[in-house]
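Final report, Chapter 2: Outcomes

The project's central promise was a pipeline that accepts a single protein chain and returns its three-dimensional structure in a standardized token representation, suitable for archiving and comparison. That pipeline is now operational. To close this chapter, we reproduce one record exactly as it appears in the project archive, with the input sequence first and the structure output second.
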Amino acid sequence: MYVTPKSYLSFIAGYRSLYDQKLGEVRVLADKINSGLSKLFDAKADVKTMQVDLAAKNVELAEAQKVSATLLKEISANTTVAEKEKAKVNVIVDAVTAKASAIAAQKAEAEADLAKAQPALDAALAALDSIKPKDITNLKAMKNPPDLVKRVFDCVLLLRQFPIEKTKWQEFKGFMCFNSSENYPTSVKMMGDSQFLAKLIAFPKERINDETCELLAPYFATPDFNPEDAAKASNAAVGLCGWAQAMVTYHEVAKVVDPKIMMLRAAEAELAAANKEKQTAEDALAVVQSNLDAMQTKFEFAMGEKKKLEDDATATQYRMDAASTLINALAGEEVRWTEQSKQFDLQIQRLTGDCAMASSFVSYLGPFNKEFRDLLCTRDFYGDLFSRGIPVTENLDVTRFLVEESEIGEWNLQGLPTDELSIQNGIMTTRATRYPVLVDPQGQGLAWIKKREEVNAMKTTTLGDKNFRNHLEDCMSFGKPMLIENIEETLDPILDPILEKRIVRKGKNAIIVLSDGKEVDFSDSFALYWYGLARFPNPTHTVLPLSW
């Protein structure tokens, strides 16, 4: 039966972990480079597309400018027409306004004068309203009514322009008056009309003239021609007396107001014509203004479209310039990225040999000095890979392959010496799958480990410490680093499960069963360091000796 050495199993585990890590790094870098190239190619295509779009937009912009210029000329011409129409309308409006003001004053004057005649009309209607049909009947029954009644009816006959006989003067109660006896039969006949009172109410006042008023003047001049004396003669005479006097009073007022009314009506007719002319002018102006407004709206829309085109063209030009600047700036990078993209497949192929060489370096070369390590890498490891046809990078710098310069600089700040051997030991200490044993007579590696793990509260102990077991279990459970000093060739068997990493997973938790059967929680952040002053003549394969 063949038993596989634990060092080889550690090498395989380290190889798998390193290969996955490096393959992931290369793929991430390849994705970034390829993504950058893709975006660069897209930017070039976008620039060509934008050049075509910008040319089309410039054509549209030129056409929009022509349309705007044409509309502006039309608007200027129409504005001139509109201003002329507006001036014409303003002249008409001013004239009409002045005329309307004059007519309003004239109308107010006429209405004020006419209002003076209204009391006379009201008095006439009130006088007629006081006459009852029976009063007329009683008068008609009188064969010889009082002289005043006859004279009152003469006045009614004269106002209604009925035929009247030639009258004579007579002396009556000490004053001169007309003798109306011969006209009374005509008055009786007039009273016989059933519509007598209604016709007096609807009497056309406009028919009264100055001649009639002159004929009535002698009647009105008699001392007894008044409502008080008429009331003594007859109730009907009272109303007819007041009506006749009111009609004459109305005529005297109306003959002054009527010319004003006629002038007012003529002025109103003239104003109506002026208003019509004004309306016609305003309608014409409204049409011109409407056309101007429509053209202005069209112009504003055209200017808005032009502004959009200008903004769009400017934005396109800006994007195109920015993309062109970026493309020109990355012209050199494009060549490098393209070449680097081609190398990724080869780099991935070489990872098989590179990771094997680096894992062998970490797993097997810890006990040797730098010169022998370099000899084994270049002669044996590289030669074996090359002879087997396994892709591998020629003259591979294992140190830089395994760690970045920034991490080395951090180690130096923590106290790690800057020589190549110390850096190699630092790599093996942090990258090995086995717990490292520091063979460090000068204590350089020990000082570095203590400084490095200071922030993690590393526990320092010895195998002979009576609390060693407790310290070990606490560090494993809480994931703290542990340094065991002054070790010898023979180790406590209780450490075998830990050195061999016999970790058992139970759900999310991990445990290690110690040699005595006790289960102890195990944290993945747990780290174990060994330190001894002498070299081991036959070190165990479960630890990684490092020669400082």
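Archive annotation: The first strand starts at residue 168 and ends at 172.
This record, like all others produced under the grant, will remain available to the consortium after the project formally closes.
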